[in-house]
Write a structure and sequence with these properties.
The protein is of the alpha+beta class. It folds into 3 domains: 2-120, Beta Barrel (Elongation Factor Tu (Ef-tu), domain 3), CATH 2.40.30; 126-275, Threonyl-tRNA Synthetase, Chain A, domain 2 (2-Layer Sandwich); 319-447, Roll (Diaminopimelate Epimerase, Chain A, domain 1). It is 35% helix and 33% strand. It has helices at 2-8, 122-146, 174-190, 201-206, 269-289, 296-328, 351-365, 389-393, 398-408, 431-447; strands at residues 25-26, 33-43, 46-48, 50-52, 56-61, 63-64, 78-82, 85-95, 98-107, 109-111, 115-120, 151-157, 162-167, 195-200, 220-226, 230-233, 248-257, 260-267, 334-336, 339-345, 368-377, 380-387, 413-416, 420-425. Strands 2-5-9-8-7-11 form a 6-stranded antiparallel β-barrel. The chain has a 6-stranded mixed sheet with strand order 19-20-21-22-24-23, with helices on both faces. α2 packs across α3 (174-190), α6 (296-328) crosses α7 and α9 runs antiparallel to α10. It catalyses: tRNA(Ala) + L-alanine + ATP = L-alanyl-tRNA(Ala) + AMP + diphosphate. It comes from Gloeobacter violaceus (strain ATCC 29082 / PCC 7421). Residues 1-20 are annotated as: Disordered. Its EC number is 6.1.1.7.
């Protein structure tokens, strides 16, 4: 009753802790609108007594129906309104006992001490809490399907989607994902009431209520859930019955880091928006490929096959061009006894074609070496070094040789072995110097044989 009286007369409320510091009374679990006194305003990071239209502000209120961001749930949004005044509230966070409402004065003048009507966007609240309750059901379903050994690592409940991260000892394949989705939808259809109760932390542990990772809890905790599904500690907002969640669909499955899996899902009204967006994409694809939905997979498969064939043809042409360039350089081959040496700049040849050209040219030369360089980009240098077995027997190593050339051109990334290797640099202006060095080293090696 005391809180109810404070709601009706916020200007008379204490709204201060025992030390006399400002605090905000949160009423968002019971109502979406409340009159509240403006206790403080920050504009440009500095306290001020008033803020005019266009100003971006952070507002402290005596009472607030706005849920602050926390435990994976997105914060509420809405407005602060009074006569000739509208402040759009875009984000809310909690700092100790104070709720900080970040937004922009859209009309009028906001003043410290005045009373405003704090109003949460009800539709957005419903969408967010639908996903928040769905997160809890998803967690419980994963424990049912994969086992209680899974460990929650994070979660997000937004207005348009939800996300859940966890670690599990076993893999999560397509069948398991489908089973988890089915369990959640069955719980939704069964219409389980989701009870909310504040209780001692010890009692919460006794009934198996799961904490949110990284959160700190006091002696009294807020518990949400039902015996048929499970309980969790949670300070956020929820639907009152699982049937309010509506249809639930897992739309993404990934592994953002080693040992951690992520599921993304959409539920309720947001799922309709998700399906509409995908329906539009499907419609556009159908129009472009002149095929009904049922034939799209086959049509797209055929297009993909054609594209892959075209790409392979282009790659073959690149190799053929590189070989032709090498052929044009055969007049520059130096002969040292039984060894033949070619060092050449192949212009803008790409690394894959450069490697194919080096191997093909060495097979024509027989015993000897082929060192090819190119500049396939404004800040890119590529090298391929190919040595015949007898050349390697003289102590030459293609990997080491290529690494030295790459280092000279600002690179160093090398792949390969003693007979053939590739390396990359980043300074095309030094390509000629690197190839000159390669020729000098090979001259010294073979001239002594």
């Amino acid at each position: 009753m005391e809180e109810s009286r404070a709601q009706g007369q916020p200007e008379a409320a204490a709204t201060a802790d025992r030390n006399g510091e400002a605090k905000t009374v949160f009423v968002g679990h019971r109502t979406l609108a409340v009159p509240a006194q403006v206790l403080g305003i920050l504009a440009g990071g500095k306290p001020c007594a008033e803020a005019v239209a266009g100003a971006e502000v952070v507002v402290v209120l005596s009472h607030s129906p706005f849920l602050a961001e926390g435990s994976g749930q997105a914060c509420d949004q809405g407005v602060l309104a009074a006569e000739n005044l509208v402040v759009a509230v875009e984000a809310v966070r909690r700092q100790g006992a104070v709720y900080l409402h970040k937004g922009k004065v859209q009309r009028g003048e906001l003043k410290v001490g005045e009373t405003v009507q704090a109003q949460v966007n009800a539709i957005r609240r419903r969408l967010v809490q639908t996903h928040h309750s769905a997160v809890h059901l998803l967690h419980a379903a994963l424990r049912r399907v994969l086992g209680a050994e899974i460990e929650q690592r994070g979660a997000l409940a937004a207005s348009d989607r939800l996300r859940f991260e966890f670690a599990a000892p076993q893999s999560l394949g397509g069948q398991e994902v489908a089973r988890v989705e089915q369990v959640v939808n069955l719980w939704v259809l069964e219409g389980h009431p989701l009870g909310v109760e504040t209780m001692p932390a010890e009692k919460a542990r006794q009934i198996g209520a799961l904490p949110f990772p990284g959160e700190r809890y006091g002696e009294q905790v807020r518990v949400i859930g039902t015996p048929e599904i499970g309980f969790e500690l949670c300070g956020g907002t929820h639907v009152s019955n699982t049937i309010e969640i509506g249809p639930f669909k897992i739309v993404g499955h990934s592994e953002p880091e080693a040992g951690v899996r992520r599921l993304e899902a959409v539920a309720g009204l947001a799922l309709l928006d998700y399906l509409r967006a995908h329906e539009q994409v499907t419609r556009i694809l159908g129009e472009q490929f002149k095929a009904p939905l049922a034939q799209l997979p086959e049509r797209l498969g055929a297009v993909l096959t054609q594209a892959q064939w075209a790409i392979s043809q282009v790659e073959d042409l690149k190799v053929a061009l590189a070989l032709a360039r090498c052929e044009a350089c055969l007049g520059e081959v130096e002969q040292y006894g039984q060894y033949r040496v070619l060092v050449a700049d192949l212009g803008d040849t790409e690394p894959a074609a450069l490697a194919a050209a080096a191997e093909g040219t060495l097979s024509k030369l027989g015993e000897g070496t082929v060192v090819l360089g190119s500049s396939p980009g404004a800040d890119a240098v590529a090298f391929t070094v190919a040595f015949s077995p007898k050349a390697v027997g003289l102590g030459l190593n293609a990997g080491q040789f290529a690494a030295a050339l790459a280092q000279l051109t600002g690179g160093g990334d090398t792949q390969g072995n003693a007979q053939i290797a590739q390396a990359a640099g980043r300074q095309p202006t030094r390509l000629k110097a690197a190839l000159d060095l390669a020729f000098a080293k090979l001259y010294d090696t073979f001239n002594d044989t």
